């Protein structure tokens, strides 16, 4: 057996510890800082000469020069297998509720628990037999996990084809049971269990091909799906100042987005916010299954009171778990809130390493780290022909609220859609506060492109008129301009804004969005009306707005829905300009 590799601490600076070693050290290997009974997990982030610099994922108070560091030879890894769903982990994949139960709420540093439950019996069904040839990432069998068939796969790290030497029969097994042995091309036998470990910083690439994301990911937020859509396997970001609704928007998305599994990486702004997530999440109802949403969710959380390095690992842990479920052929949505906290962790660590700082003291590699994180999203065709996807949505919370800062700018370079929240909108309680004048998406919507362009044009025009009116007042504005202003405001109120507290309005599916958007486009945005004066126009749009409020909260295809539509149509008819009546043929 290899001799234990150790180092001795020569410097402690916040969560950075430098240790002198004798033999060798591997970049990114895990090391433990030993302090009496405590073993503090850390990762080698830089090697210079015979000094290894470590980011310690725990509080480093009290560490002294000369104390020992033990190198493990293993990369920072997560445990993957059945039992992940429904769990709440910290950045090192410790199950938080169990940790709290065992050690009390004030977690002792250096205590780690196994991520997956050891004693649960899983009903395994093999799908291969001895003699079959399989590759890393291919299925050997499956177990039921919540509402899914969880594939048990050949460990991802095994290269080339392997032969199944033996495989367990159908039956009940725990994580301790060996369920198969496979032989690689060099004749080496590998034991396979229901779980496997995978290093978090290396993408799982056991698939045939990465495909271009083309299928819309329906979130049921109208402003997103219709105007600034996202795609399965795509990426998007939500920058917004503090309190503008980023976290609420992500929670709504996690409930309603049409995906199988949601992974939430909560890097808290404040400790209370994460506690809030933990408190509300388990009680959320999944509208699709009518069961707790947590059954198809994994939460990785760090509060701002945990050491910054743990935020770095939580982001990677989350994306690796997302890739794992994609490998099973599922559609996964990873929500990271907030990536700015992660970037701050990078900045702090970079400062400790005394690296040459880039803009706003962020490290020069900030942009490439952000890019390689989002690059782990994607739709893939697996070896068995099935398709799986990981979609990544990250919030950004720029200090000072301006988007002209390194984290936002770096993120915008790589994502496929940008949902910028504005303070102005959230102050006016126009939720979701996504600003239609600055947001964009490179993905295709299920709404006709010409209609979208037209709607955006009206929103711009409406905003221009509103700005103008601030200067010259309403009296100086022409009736035509005023009508454009009202059309834009109307569209904003009844379509872009959505009431998260109304059970119908909080989520609008694709069919209804197409219908309502089409209706508004044809009968209101593209219609000409005759008004006596501005007062008359204002009154008309006000009436319409009230009617649409009711329409939005009446169930799709209900009597109430039809009745309200008729009322809306009769109001419209009254003011239609001559020659426009044909609209209601
Ligand atoms: P952020 O994460 O950007 O700091 P939050 O998501 O925590 O902001 O939102 C701050 C507050 O704004 C919430 O507590 C809530 O009162 C309000 N809010 C945000 N989004 C909505 C929404 N869609 N509907 C109603 N209120 C909202
Ligand atoms: Mg937030």
Fold blueprint:
Layout: E1 5-13, E2 16-21, E3 29-35, E4 38-48, E5 51-56, E6 68-75, E7 77-80, E8 88-89, H1 96-103, E9 122-126, E10 133-135, E11 139-145, E12 148-153, E13 161-167, E14 171-173, E15 180-183, E16 189-192, E17 196-199, E18 209-211, H2 222-227, E19 235-239, H3 246-256, E20 261-267, H4 271-280, E21 297-302, H5 308-327, E22 331-337, H6 339-352, H7 366-374, E23 378-381, E24 387-396, H8 406-414, E25 417-418, H9 423-427, E26 440-441, H10 449-472, H11 479-496, H12 510-525, H13 534-552, H14 559-575
Bound molecules: adenosine-5'-diphosphate (ADP) and magnesium ion.
What is the overall number of helices?
A: 14
User: What ranges have pLDDT less than 50 throughout 5 or more consecutive residues?
Assistant: none
Kindly report the average pLDDT value: 93
The ligands bound in this entry are: adenosine-5'-diphosphate, magnesium ion
Indicate the percent of residues in helices: 25-40%
Which term fits the overall shape?
A: globular
Main sheet: strands, sense, barrel: 10 strands, mixed
Distance between the first and last residues' Cα:
86 Å
**Beta strand %:** 15-25%
Question: How many individual β-strands?
Answer: 26
The SS-based structural class is alpha+beta
Estimated radius of gyration: 27 Å
């Amino acid at each position: 057996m290899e001799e234990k590799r150790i180092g001795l601490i020569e410097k402690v600076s916040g969560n950075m510890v430098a240790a002198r070693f004798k033999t060798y050290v591997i970049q990114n290997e895990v090391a433990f800082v030993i302090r009496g009974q405590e073993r503090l997990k850390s990762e080698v982030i830089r090697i210079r000469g015979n000094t290894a610099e470590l980011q310690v994922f725990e509080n480093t108070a009290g560490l002294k020069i000369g104390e020992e560091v033990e190198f493990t030879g293993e990369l920072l890894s997560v445990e993957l297998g059945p039992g992940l769903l429904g769990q709440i982990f910290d950045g090192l994949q410790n199950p938080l509720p169990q940790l709290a139960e065992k050690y009390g709420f004030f977690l002792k540093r250096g205590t780690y628990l196994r991520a997956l439950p050891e004693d649960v019996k899983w009903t395994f069904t093999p799908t291969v037999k001895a003699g079959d040839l399989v590759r890393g990432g291919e299925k050997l069998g499956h177990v039921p996990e919540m509402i899914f068939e969880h594939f048990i796969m050949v460990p991802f790290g095994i290269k080339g084809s392997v032969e199944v030497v033996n495989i367990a029969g159908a039956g009940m097994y725990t994580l301790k049971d060996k369920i198969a042995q496979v032989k690689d091309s060099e004749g080496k036998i590998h034991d396979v269990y229901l779980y496997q470990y995978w290093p978090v910083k290396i993408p799982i690439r056991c698939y045939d091909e990465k495909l271009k994301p083309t299928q819309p990911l329906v979130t049921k937020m109208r402003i997103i799906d219709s105007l600034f859509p996202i795609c399965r396997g795509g990426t998007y970001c939500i920058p917004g100042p503090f309190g503008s609704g980023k976290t609420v928007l992500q929670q709504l998305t996690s409930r309603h987005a049409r995906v199988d599994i949601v992974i939430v990486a909560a890097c808290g702004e404040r400790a209370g916010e994460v506690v809030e997530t933990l408190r509300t999440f388990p009680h959320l109802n999944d509208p699709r299954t009518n069961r707790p949403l947590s059954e198809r969710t994994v939460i990785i959380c760090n509060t701002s009171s945990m050491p910054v390095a743990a935020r770095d690992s939580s982001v990677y842990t989350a994306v690796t778990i997302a890739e794992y479920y994609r490998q099973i052929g599922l559609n996964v949505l990873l929500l990271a809130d907030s990536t700015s906290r992660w970037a701050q962790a990078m900045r702090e660590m970079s400062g400790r390493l005394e690296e040459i700082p880039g803009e706003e003291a962020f490290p020069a590699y900030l942009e490439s780290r952000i890019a390689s994180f989002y690059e782990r999203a994607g739709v893939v065709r697996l070896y068995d022909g099935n398709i799986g996807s990981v979609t990544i949505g990250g919030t950004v919370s720029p200090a000072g609220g301006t988007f002209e800062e390194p984290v936002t700018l770096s993120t915008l370079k790589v994502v496929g859609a940008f949902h910028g929240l504005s303070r102005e909108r959230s102050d006016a309680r126009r939720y979701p506060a996504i600003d239609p004048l600055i947001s964009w998406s490179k993905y295709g919507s299920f709404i006709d492109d010409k209609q979208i362009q037209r709607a955006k044009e009206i929103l711009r025009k409406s905003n221009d008129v509103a700005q103008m009116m601030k200067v010259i007042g309403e009296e100086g504005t022409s009736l035509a301009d005023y009508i454009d202003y009202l059309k834009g405001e109307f569209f904003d109120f009844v379509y872009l804004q959505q009431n998260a507290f109304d059970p119908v309005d909080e989520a609008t599916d694709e069919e209804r969005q197409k219908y309502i958007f089409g209706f508004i486009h044809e009968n209101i945005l593209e219609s000409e009306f005759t008004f006596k004066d501005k007062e008359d126009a204002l009154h008309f749009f006000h009436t319409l707005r009230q009617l649409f409020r009711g329409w939005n909260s009446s169930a799709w295809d209900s009597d109430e829905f039809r009745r309200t539509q008729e009322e809306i149509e009769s109001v419209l008819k009254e003011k239609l300009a001559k020659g426009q009546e044909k609209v209601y043929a």
